[in-house]
Amino acid sequence: MVFTFGVFLLPLTKDFGWSRSDASLALVVGSLATGLCVPLAGRLVDKFGIRKVTIPAIVLFALSLVALALFANTPTKFVLIYAFMGVVAAGQTPLPYAKSISAWFDDKRGLALGIAMSGVGLGAALVPQFAQLLVNNVGWRGAYIGLAVLTFVVGLTAAGLALREPPQLQGQKGEPAAVLPGKTAREALRSGVFWKLVIAFVSVALATNGVIAHVVPMLVDRGVDASVATRAMAFAGLALIGGRLLAGAMLDRYFAPYVAVFFFAIPLLGIGLLLTSLGTTYAALAVVLVGLGLGAEVDLIAFMLSRYLGLKSFGEIYGYLFAAFMLGTGVGPFAMGAVFDATGNYDAALFGLGGLLLLSCFVLISFGQYVYPQAQKSVSSRSEAQPAQALSPSVDAAQ
Questions:
Q1: Is residue 385 part of a domain?
Q2: How far is Cα 98 from Cα 318, in angstroms, rounded to an integer?
């Protein structure tokens, strides 16, 4: 929905005469639909298990891509199909995989999340190239069908054959989360740390996804060939992979809010380079810098959620956080398109998105100690007459 959007944006607007903001509205609606449905998907994952939710979602998502190829000949149809795609996408977001990884791992949880979620970066590097190749050879309709086949085969194979439920999530009567430490979803919604997480990650999602979704048309407007501009997206994917692996490793060694500030400040440099309107080489570097920040987002959401709000209702709480994240993911590209339509360039939008990255950094540095630290650290802290149980009330009170 996001990484290939820029590949299809120009062919669609050229064929049908749509404005970029009209086309980008579909991504807003799709992202909003995902955001609204992810909490429900999280609740279903908590209750029924990961595979029973994820596998049907993959099949329906692939069918929605076919529908885009066959029926999306007006802006209204394009938006409606994206809305349906957004609904079923809720079941195949990083949510179920993050829940599985967080339950399997306590020690090295950050690295485990980084490795698992780096698959998104691999997709971001390869799938836009695949989509552009298909667009060049069989048109945008054939490209959507090609993406549907790819989604069905790769996604269904991985989820069907490789994904397994952690033992502690196989409790009776569909209520495994009750035995895990942490807050309930209702308690989390009343927690200050939850809303700080929302502000921080919505701001970053707006900025990074807004830039990434419009990188291809932005470079084409500057005279770069479309195929060369699309190849720049490969750098974003590679940076996303590197960002997730590096962030994951750092999360196990350093305080998570400081790691987040580091990775969310890096895209500011990328936005600065894009504002200079320099050549293709610098544009590729800018994409890398933005991609590093984009790569760290999902790891950080899952890790910080597990350390500050626990695992008891991880799926549902992650759903609420990811809903806010997806709202930012959709609004960012729409805002970029709207600013371009109004001004003829992206400069004002880039300045605004840079300001949101600064806001996110300021919010993150206000976080206190972990409420649910690594188990080994809890044991050592008890030996120092500073029980882990005594940590939670004080942290909660401070928040």
A1: no
A2: 9
Going by the DSSP 8-state scheme, the letter that residue 312 receives in this structure is: T
DSSP string, 323-353: HHHHHHHHHHHHHHHHHHHHHSSSHHHHHHH
Does a structural domain hold residue 399? no
Rounded CA gap, 320 and 356, in Å? 20
Domain count within the chain: 1
| Rounded to 5°, angle at Cα 210 from 208 and 214 | 115
- What CATH number did the domain enclosing 263 receive? 1.20.1250.20
In a domain, 387, yes or no: no
pLDDT, one tens digit per residue, over 121-174 is: 777 778 888 999 999 999 999 999 999 999 999 888 888 777 777 665 555 444
What's the CA angle centered on 16, arms 10 and 21, to 5 degrees? 60
Token pair, residue 80, equals: 């409606």
- Convert the pLDDT of each residue in 178-223 to its tens digit: 457 888 888 889 989 999 999 998 888 888 888 888 877 887 777 7
Q: What are the contacts of 174-181 at 24+ separation with CB within 8 A?
A: 174/47, 174/48, 174/49, 175/47, 176/46, 177/46, 177/311, 177/312, 177/313, 177/314, 177/315, 178/312, 180/103, 180/310, 180/311, 180/312, 180/314, 181/310, 181/311, 181/312, 181/372
Residue in this structure with the two tokens 């987040």, named with its chain if needed: 260
How far the first Cα of the chain sits from its last, in Å, is 36
Range of the domain at 304: 5-367
285: how many CB neighbours lie within 10 A of its CB? 18
d(CA 83, CA 32): 8
Tell me which long-range contacts 77-81 makes (C-beta under 8 A, separation of at least 24): 78/12, 78/23, 78/26, 79/25, 79/26, 79/29, 81/26
* Residues 328, 293 contacting (CB under 8 angstroms): no
| Tokens linked to 368 | 């206190």
